Amino acid sequence: MMRVKEILNLARVPSILMLGVVYVFYVLIGGVVFWKLEGDLGRKDLSVLLTNKKQLLAKYTCLNQQGLEDVAGVRQKSGLSLKGNYTTDGFWKFTSSALFAATVVTTIGYGNISPSTTAGQIFCVFFAVFGIPLNIVVLNRVGKYMLMCTRFFVHLVSYLSGIVLFFIVPMIVFQQQEGWTHAQAIYFCFITLSTIGFGDFVADSNPDKNYPEWYSILMATWIFFGLAWLALVINHSIDILERLNTHYKQRANRMREEASGNPEGDTPETQVEEEDEIKRSPVAK
After folding, report:
1. Overall pTM surpassing 0.70 (yes/no)
2. Residue 189 lies in domain
3. What CA–CA distances, in Å, run from 155 to 2, 11, 12, 152, 281?
4. Strand pairing partners for 283?
5. Do 139 and 12 sit in the same domain of this protein?
6. What one-character DSSP code corresponds to residue 165?
7. Cβ-count burial of 189 within 10 angstroms (0-12 exposed, 13-18 middle, 19+ buried)?
8. By the 8 A CB rule, do 242 and 257 touch?
9. Model confidence over 171-190: pLDDT tens digits?
């Protein structure tokens, strides 16, 4: 289980949101610039491309190998559709320009489009110089959040599975075998596994009932593994509360130190707390 302090540090939602906004804004700005620098050239050359296309189709009424290569060259270099007078999505539109900007900062570089103007090529260099490090920072932060979420969901699934296995399923079994209500069965499960054991409800002890042979074996197995699972849950809960308490105490100490003009935090109280935190043995995860 991830340390609570690390989770709290990662849970700075405004910082990750701000970083994400900066990243998206940077990519969109790059897309606009590429669109303006390269899109104008494409629109200017469109009439020439259409003329070349008509000439090729008129010349090669029955296309041979060379003719196919010439037509393919028009398609590859211009992005011009061979079925109509329009271009494919790979041409320099705003959407394709923004996608191109994203492939630059992520270093994917499909190669279906690339800047052909001098201004576009120079801008691409500077855009990549600042965009690639920004992309690495964003990916690193997002990766940490994904790791945190993965660990969280792993523990969540573990806890939910334990609830189903040690509470819901036994509740159904006790309700059928003992004739208890669902509330009484859940109450018995918790009182038993928590070792409170009031004795007001006891399974497999009614002399008027004929229990199946597997019932007592199932009871013993459920108690053994259920105690271990509930002890683990309680242990994790204590660990979380202790770490939360330590975190907020250290935060309160830092605030007092900043208010008193001692931002370094070298007071005896904080030093003792830090030493205690270091010496405290970690709880098994």
Report:
1. no
2. 147-279
3. 10, 18, 21, 5, 21
4. none
5. yes
6. I
7. buried
8. no
9. 999 999 999 999 999 999 99
